[in-house]
Design goal:
CATH topology: 2,3-Dihydroxybiphenyl 1,2-Dioxygenase, domain 1
Structural class: alpha/beta
CATH superfamily: 2,3-Dihydroxybiphenyl 1,2-Dioxygenase, domain 1
Radius of gyration: 16 Å
Strand content: 25-35%
Number of helices: 5
Order of helices and strands: HEHEEEHEHEEH
Number of strands: 7
CATH architecture: Roll
CATH class: Alpha Beta
Length: about 170
């Protein structure tokens, strides 16, 4: 984003999480929980994305550890080509569809043109080509407009543990 496009223009809120791709989720959890002392909030498989994830809260944000379990996924290809480390940055927005429309109108390349189900709520990704090499994820704040459409029978898989700062 340029100086004439402040975060408020696109509805960006707090950093929801920073994701780290790992080869061995259990070993990574051991390090972050047992060595660094961060609490483990949740650790679950996400079969639709071919990954297992763990969330560890730190301050007002979280670290998301991501282990690919399906070698055909983009996360697995990322791990094989780049190794373990930083994967993406996630911002919370109040209305994901509105944020995507605003960003597309500003010339930002979208990976997802519409909200899709995520582990903690509706999500969408922005292409690293438009974000100076960083994969950016957006997540809609709890109770936002996409929740009812994507989760008609209740909350997202990990929504009970979701600590939305925007709702």
């Amino acid at each position: 984003m340029t100086p004439d496009q402040p975060a408020e223009r696109h509805g960006l809120g707090a950093i929801h999480h920073v994701a780290v791709v790992v080869r061995d989720l259990n070993a990574a959890v051991h390090f972050y929980r047992d060595t660094l002392g961060l609490p483990l909030d949740s650790m679950v498989p996400i079969p639709s994305d071919g990954v297992r994830i763990a969330f560890l809260p730190v301050g007002e944000s979280r670290i998301e550890l991501v282990e690919p379990v399906d070698p055909g996924t983009g996360v697995a290809r990322f791990l094989e080509s780049r190794g373990e480390g930083f994967h993406h940055l996630c911002f919370e927005v109040p209305d994901l569809a509105e944020a995507l429309a605003s960003m597309e109108a500003a010339g930002i390349e979208l990976i997802d043109r519409a909200p899709r189900p995520g582990a903690e709520g509706p999500v969408a990704f922005l292409h690293p080509r438009s974000c100076h090499g960083v994969l950016v994820e957006l997540i809609e704040a709890a109770g936002g407009p996409a929740w009812g459409r994507l989760y008609p029978e209740g909350a997202a898989p990990l929504a009970a543990g979701h600590r939305s700062r925007g709702a």
